[in-house]
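ARCHIVE CARD
Drawer: 12
Card no.: 0347
Subject: one protein chain, sequence and derived structure
Cross-reference: see card 0346
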Amino acid sequence: MKNRNKNRIYNLDRPIIAITGGVSSGKSLLCQRLKELNYFVLKADDLVKEIYHQDETKNFISTLAPQCLENDKIQFPVLRKLFFEDQTIKQKIEEYIYSKLEKTFLNSYGHISQFTHNKYFFYEIPLLFEKKLQDKFDFIILIYTTKENQINRTIQRDKVDREIVENIMANQINTEEKKILSHYLIENNGTIDDLYKKIDQLCLNLKNTFSTSAI
């Protein structure tokens, strides 16, 4: 990979590999396995949760939607429901969260010195294509499964109605389009053991792609 991406997100100094996929496609399992293999992994959802738990964020949300706070804690089921009902509030809160994301990201990225043996690192970002951020990364991995798997896994995990899951998926780019825009595909329709074998093979492929001479 001799042509380094000079436009990578936050002007970082090393190649970034994006991990993306639809709801309940297996992104967390992929990240978990990579961490077990001692790779440096950041997750956009974790950074967003960190921002949501800041007092400044709670104060901001309380001015827009006080019903979403109880005992100084954000009630995320209430907030998610409000997002579907009021696009204006959703946009304002999302804009606020994203305005804080760079600083939060860079604070976490500062710990990469612990992983100096990694010449690249992974960033899981579910809405990569929806936010049109694909050009900010050096390599994109898409993990995917069937639509029915996505629905059933999300219902079981989040204890929500099928309609809510379908609404979430309706706001995401379809899998076939994502496949075209990605560099590497991982199908996750089998067992965890099957998935881990695919991830191990991915890591071998990445070592060849990001060879010493390429970076």
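Annotation on reverse: The mean pLDDT is 88. Residues 1-40+119-207 form a domain with the Rossmann fold fold (CATH 3.40.50.300).
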